[in-house]
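Quick one, tokens below. Sequence please?
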């Protein structure tokens, strides 16, 4: 997975499989709702979310590590997402999403020197930070808000480079 070819092949395979096994069934009316229990590397989960879009109703579930399982943890405190930014110039924009691990601005700046960098994060990043459906709704709202701010400040043609450290359900929702 250290080579670009690997990711191009994997993304193309995902797109082919999605078209053959999911999209055709949606278009034929066989499927009207999707439940997503996804495990894969983050780039593929993000692409899966992009392929799913928001046309067909879908519920995305989060694999909980402690205790293990796909059920929601309603006892968990609500996800409190914070937006901060590092000013810069240029058409290239960095977007850090640090929910399951801390991602410093320096990581994006190493790739995009001088570019504006936005960061969505939580106070204590952890793998099980998504505990409820409402947490995913908060993430979607935060994503819409930051993408709107980027579009407003930098134009719709700005190219966004994503730096994610997120649980599986969040990766699908980001897509």
């Amino acid at each position: 997975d250290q080579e670009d070819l690997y990711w191009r092949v994997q993304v193309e395979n995902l797109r082919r499989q999605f078209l053959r096994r999911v999209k055709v069934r949606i278009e034929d009316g066989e499927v009207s709702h999707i439940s997503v229990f996804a495990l894969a590397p983050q780039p593929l989960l993000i692409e899966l979310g992009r392929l799913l879009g928001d046309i067909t109703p879908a519920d995305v579930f989060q694999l909980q590590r402690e205790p293990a399982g796909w059920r929601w943890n309603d006892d968990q405190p609500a996800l409190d997402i914070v937006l901060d930014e590092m000013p810069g110039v240029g058409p290239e924009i960095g977007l850090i999403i640090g929910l399951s691990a801390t991602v410093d601005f320096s990581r994006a700046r190493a790739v995009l020197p001088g570019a504006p960098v936005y960061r969505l994060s939580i106070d204590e990043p952890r793998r099980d930070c998504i505990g409820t459906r409402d947490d995913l709704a908060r993430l979607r709202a935060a994503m819409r808000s930051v993408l709107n701010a980027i579009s407003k400040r930098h134009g719709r043609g700005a190219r966004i480079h994503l730096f994610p450290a997120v649980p599986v359900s969040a990766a699908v929702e980001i897509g």
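DSSP finds five helices and eight strands in the chain. Residues 4-27 form the longest helix (24 residues).
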